[in-house]
């Protein structure tokens, strides 16, 4: 896990029903990140991603924009140490 970090993100705004999760998964896979993304009952989207710091930074930047149809209002970002528990990046429920 040397050099890898974890990002825990909560994205608020118009982020459900706009392909946010599928787009986030595509972006995470492009950046070779592992983790997951899911919808929350309150309308937010939550994600956990692990990877190299520069790739995590790119993912967080992407999350602040999201897919074209999304209207992101805020992103809460908490960095942490990577655990290595994920082998892929998945959309979960």
Summarize this, please?
The chain is of the alpha+beta class and about 90 residues long. The protein has helices at about 20-30, 55-65, and strands at about 5-15, 35-40, 45-50, 70-80, 90. A five-stranded mixed β-sheet has the order 4-1-3-2-5, covered by helices on one side.
What key phrases describe this protein's structure?
2 helices, globular, 40% strand, 93 residues, Alpha-Beta Plaits, alpha+beta, 5-stranded mixed beta sheet, 26% helix
CATH architecture heading of one domain: 2-Layer Sandwich
Distance between the termini: 27 Å
What is the number of strand segments? 5
Largest sheet: 5 strands, mixed
Per the principal axes of the C-alpha atoms, what is the gross shape? globular
The string of secondary-structure elements, in order, is EHEEHEE
**Uncertain regions spanning at least 5 consecutive residues:** none
Mean pLDDT: 96
The portion of residues assigned to helices is 25-40%
The total count of helices amounts to: 2
CATH fold group of one domain: Alpha-Beta Plaits
**Order of the strands making up the biggest sheet:** 4-1-3-2-5
